[in-house]
Design a protein that fits this description.
Shape: extended
Largest sheet: 7 strands, mixed
GO cellular component, one term: late endosome membrane
Main location: membrane
Family: Belongs to the LAMP family.
Pfam family, one: Lamp2-like_luminal
Number of helices: 2
Strand content: 35-45%
Distance between the termini: 18 Å
GO biological process, one term: establishment of protein localization to organelle
Number of strands: 13
CATH class of one domain: Mainly Beta
């Protein structure tokens, strides 16, 4: 029969381990929810068109050679004052690849991707800039012209020429599987989904080796951290068991 003191120590040890496990589980659940949650817009949309389809958008130069590649899903969040309804409206619009035409231009340090949809009523433009000193590129400008559903408002436009997003390295493609939100202006934000793009030094019609964004890297760290924590718990439980067993045997030694 196990001595009362030994049994008490084992119960206390198990309770301590259960408390540690509960705290770690709560902490990792909170960390996972924070990391995985998609970025939110400033105004809640009144409609949800669902996740946009990914489209392949290419730009060719004068020699009919592909100089910019983009593969991504795009969603517009347009906020305006509806005069007919007398309130602020946020329209969420998916860019549909099957009705979108891509065009643009490529220069040594500047590349432009222009997407036109709905019989040219919507034009979404991205401008990428290359820093030749650091061999880094980034999205430096985004603009949109379109029409909204309120006929009294009609045309909508927004532009930001001081962006610093979607940063990549020359000769490599930029990739980000996680959803991101690009804030163009107070009235426009763009959600991007599963982005892969390369605006400079495209070889043929294929992406270069991909460099993943920080969001993807952080997301990959979560299962590694959780796995390491679980392994640590298993080790602690095993160690406590071995120590308890050794003490138990020592308590029954004959003198």
């Amino acid at each position: 029969m196990m001595p009362f003191g030994e049994r008490s120590r084992r119960v206390t040890g198990m309770m301590f381990l259960l408390i540690i496990a509960a705290v770690l589980h709560h902490s990792f659940a909170a960390l996972s929810a924070t990391t995985m949650a998609p970025a939110q817009t400033t105004a809640a949309p009144h409609t949800d068109p669902g996740r946009p389809d990914r489209g392949t958008y290419n730009v060719t130069n004068g020699n009919n050679t592909v100089c910019l590649l983009a593969y991504m899903g795009l969603q517009l969040n347009i906020t305006y004052n509806s005069t007919s309804q007398g309130k602020i409206i946020t329209e969420v619009v998916n860019i549909k690849p099957n009705v979108t035409q891509a065009s643009g231009s490529c220069e040594a340090e500047r590349a432009v991707l222009e997407l036109k949809t709905d019989a040219n009523k919507t034009t979404l433009t991205f401008v990428f800039t290359l820093n030749t000193t650091s061999s880094k590129y980034h999205l430096s400008e985004a603009s949109l012209t379109t029409t909204v559903s309120d006929p009294k408002v009609g045309n909508f436009s927004a532009r930001n020429s001081s962006l610093d997003s979607l940063q990549g390295t020359l000769g490599f493609s930029y990739m980000c599987r996680m959803e991101q939100t690009l804030t163009v202006s107070q009235n426009l934000s763009i959600n991007t989904f599963q982005v892969q793009l390369q605006p400079f030094e495209v070889s043929g019609d294929k992406f270069g080796a991909a460099v993943e964004c920080q969001l993807d890297e952080d997301n990959m760290l979560i299962p590694i951290i959780v796995g390491a924590a679980l392994a640590g718990l298993v080790f602690i439980v095993l160690l406590a068991y071995l120590i308890g067993r050794k003490r138990s045997h020592a308590g029954y030694q004959t003198i």
